[in-house]
């Protein structure tokens, strides 16, 4: 099917610490570190989502030793793009000077894994040799900065990967959706139609934290167990689990339930917070550039979030 031949990431320069947030809402560094595991996050002060996506894409292309004209598709994911249309994918295509088709997938925090699944389908048609996938978010633009239960969690950034069909490293995947908007939702601008009579909630992230937390722990454990069982593997065979970075305590709970060490999970939430669709490719890029992944290593990517959607995949590096 495909394997990952290059990774990239980009985060804005501006660091916002917990102490700085404590000057804006009723919170404190100790609570955020203990309950979520975040020390700081990056916040865009002047870059749109597509510009961050482009910078991460450039890094991934360079890492893959690949040119924009080599790409057969560009797939992006975002819940916080500057435009509904053109999509972030179309803007990345323009900024890169690529000419291939480009499209966007919306699956919130699980979207990077839905991009891989979509790419697998395109590769299976036999027409694509190289596909660029990017998760990019300017979540700071869709946060209610007076709501301490959400504004302390999220951050901005982008992560990318180049996929190639010359080897099969995408071994198995699970994708699940429990559709509904009662646990997490980001309402859209309702418009100004004089004919429309319904009201919507404010166009910011609304989240039932504890419901999401329980859902996340269950989803991670069940998806990982499914992949291990289906592929006759044990957790000891897995070099790293790369989870969506939403709350360090979610990972602590999942590790305990899976009876494995927390070190098996790669975590960087301390520095970036939750960057939704960008969190897994950013983590993957850090692992890759640090030389922590060797050819032949098994890794599992696992994600959960709005939709509600969850997904996981087994990759051979
Ligand atoms: O990427 C999408 C997926 N999202 C997630 O996976 C998020 C999952 N959920 C979570 O990470 C956690 O539920 C939160 C971080 C959102 C909240 O943490 P929690 O441990 O579930 O806190 P809680 O809502 O149970 O609140 C505990 C207490 C409350 O005070 P009382 O009622 O016990 O007096 C809150 O008012 O903590 C209070 N609190 C805060 N205190 C200081 C809530 N937010 C804050 C805050 N600073 N920022």
What binds here, in terms of ligands, is: oxa(dethia)-CoA
- What is the 3D shape? globular
Global mean pLDDT: 97
Alpha carbon gap, first and last residue: 13 Å
Radius of gyration: 19 Å
How does the major sheet shape up? 5 strands, mixed
The number of E-state strands comes to 13
Query: Based on helices, strands and strand pairing, what is the structural class?
Result: alpha/beta
- Uncertain stretches: none
Strand content: 15-25%
How is this structure best described in words?
The protein is of the alpha/beta class. Helices cover 32% and strands 24% of the residues. It is built from ten helices and 13 strands. It has helices at 18-22, 29-35, 49-64, 88-96, 111-124, 148-151, 209-230, 248-257, 269-272, 279-289; strands spanning 3-10, 15-17, 40-42, 73-77, 102-105, 130-138, 156-164, 170-177, 184-185, 206-207, 238-243, 298-305, 309-316. Helix 4 (88-96) links the parallel strand 4 (73-77) and strand 5 (102-105). Helix 3 crosses helix 4 and helix 7 packs across helix 8 (248-257). The protein is globular, with a radius of gyration of 19 Å. It starts with a strand and ends with a strand. The relative contact order is 0.20. The model has no long low-confidence stretch (mean pLDDT 97).
